[in-house]
Each structure stands twice: as C-alpha cells, then as structure tokens.
Amino acid sequence: MTLDLVPPPALSPARALDSADALEARLREIGAARYHDRHPFHHLLHSGALNRGQVQAWALNRFYYQSMIPLKDAVVLSRLQDRETRREWRHRIEDHDGSAGEEGGIDRWLALTDALGLDRDYVVSAAGILPATRFAVDAYVDFVGRRSPLDAVASSLTELFAPAIHEQRIAGMLRHYDFVNPEVMRYFSTRLTQAPRDAGFALAYVRSNARTPEQREAVCQALIFKTNVLWVQLDALHHAYVTGHVPPGAFRPGQDGGTA
Ligand SMILES: O=C(O)c1cc(C(=O)O)c2c(n1)C(=O)C(=O)c1cc(C(=O)O)[nH]c1-2
After folding, report:
1. What domains does the chain contain, in order, with CATH numbers?
2. C-alpha of residue 69 to centroid of ligand 1, in Å
3. Where does the Thiaminase-2/PQQC domain lie (predicted)?
4. What is the ipTM of this complex?
C-alpha cells in the first residue's frame, strides 16, 4: 500500500497574536497549510483524472453544502447584535437562495448537476450523500449557533482562499471534461466576485473585533475548524469514489439518481 502524503508547507515560528496584522498573517498561514485546494481529490478533479460518475458524486455531495449555507448564514445573522453588520451579512442569503426573478447560487449549482445528468429531485433530497458530508456540514451550522459571534464570522474566512481554487476549477474542468461548458460553470464564475467581497468583510470584522490575543487565537481556531469541515468532505469522497468503499445507501454512479 502506498501513502499519498501531501507535505504541509513549512510554518514560520508561532508569533504572538498581538495585533490585527499578526492575526491576518496567521490566518493566511493557516489557509496555505490547511485549505482544501491541497487535497488530492481536488487535484484529481481539476486535472481531468476523474470519470463522469466521480464528478457526479462530488457535485451531488457539494450540493448539500451549498444548500445549507443560507441556513448557516441565517443562524449567523441571528447572532449579530449590530444592525450595520446584519445589513452587510444578509445579502449572503440572497446570493445563494436568489430573490424574485433572480437566480441564486443554488439554482446555478443545480444547473451543474443537471448538466452532469443527475436527477434534480434526487440531488435536492440529499438521499444519496455520504454520511460524512452530512456530519461535516451539519457541524458547521451547529458551530455558528453555539460559538461566539466572532467565531461564527471567523469560520467563514476560508472564503479568503476560495477564488484561487474556483479559478483553477473553472480552467481545469473546462479543459478536461467534455460534459462541462462555461454555462455550466457559472456558479463558480459568479463566486469570483461574491467571495472576495464576503471574505473582505469578514476579515475586516475579525481584525477589529478580536481585540485580545485570546480572541485572536479563537479566530484562528475557528478557521482551523472550518478547514477541517471542508477537508473531511473530500476525504470521504476519495474513500468512497476513488478507493471504492461506497457506504451503504450512498450514491452509486450508474445505478442511482441519473444517467451514467
Ligand atoms: O468551492 C470551494 O472550494 C468553496 C469553498 C468555500 C469555503 O472556502 O468555505 C465556499 C464555497 N466554495 C462557496 O461556493 C460558497 O458559497 C461558500 C460560502 C462559504 C461560507 O463559509 O459561508 N464558504 C464557501
């Protein structure tokens, strides 16, 4: 058996979190070391190494994450005491749910699963998702409800690192998969402008609201928690659809939920 190890980048010695700049530098180090762009499953996805059934499995499972993001943001909103912050946060819900006559991110994700040949009702039902997908995503929603509002905002900071992976994904998937075209990838092209705005706001919020070294440490831990939420979803996809151990009841390409 070979171990496919991903060597982590060297970390600089831990610095005291004595300023907003030190906090931001530490957050960026955490992203460089732990963000899911480093995961082998993403390397396979973006380099064209997956077959259609494996891409279907990824899109089906990621739909559950997408569908829960507005619920997560509604919980965050309910925790924010400051009206200005709520005003800024609430567009996140519309970005995903859409509004009258305007499609949202969930519609755009369903355009992707349609193009992959998955049945919409099956996707929306979440009946075929991996147990680990459900546990990880539900843990994220639970986290923002139980922890401090600062932790809740901080846990969204993975989005600082999302535009780079979305660019890699758009380019890689368009180049390598004949079942993908720019129309199908519009979920990601839209996120290229939405994510920097959201991440910029969340970063400014933690920079000014984490005022002690302990609070800054808590912000870092919230980001680490979230990188784990993302990472374990890909571990589970890899185990099921690359190694081949599909859990009982989970999606089986060619048998469930659409055309192979
Ligand atoms: O494709 C990705 O790699 C990726 C990652 C993340 C992220 O870093 O959490 C998000 C998204 N996409 C995304 O599309 C999205 O809407 C989103 C919302 C959030 C959040 O935590 O509020 N993360 C992400």
Report:
1. 28-243 (1.20.910.10)
2. 8
3. 25-235
4. 0.93
Token duo for residue 218 = 């808590």
Q: Which atom of ligand 1 is nearest to the CA of 165?
A: 3
Atom 20 (ligand 1): residue with closest C-alpha?
A: 156
Spacing, Cα 127 to ligand 1 middle (Å): 22
Q: How far is the CA of 184 from the centre of ligand 1 (A)?
A: 18
pLDDT digits (tens, 9 = 90+) for 31-71: 999 999 999 999 999 999 999 999 999 999 999 999 999 99
Q: Which two tokens stand for residue 96?
A: 């995903």
In whole angstroms, what is the distance from residue 61 CA to residue 116 CA? 13
Cα of 161 vs centre of ligand 1, distance in Å, is 9
Counting from 1 in the atom list of ligand 1, the atom nearest the Cα of 166 is: 1
Quickly state the pLDDT bin for 260 (edges 50, 70, 90). low
Nearest atom (ligand 1) to Cα of 169: 1
Burial of residue 182 (CB within 10 Å: 0-12, 13-18, 19+) is: exposed
Q: With left for phi above 0 and alpha for psi between -120 and 50, is residue 57 left, alpha or beta?
A: alpha
Q: Residues near ligand 1 with C-beta < 6 Å? A: 69, 105, 156, 158-159, 162, 165-166, 191, 230
Q: Which residue has the higher pLDDT, 259 or 91?
A: 91
**Banded model confidence at residue 257, pLDDT cuts 50, 70, 90:** confident
Q: Which helix (H) or strand (E) holds 53?
A: helix 52-79
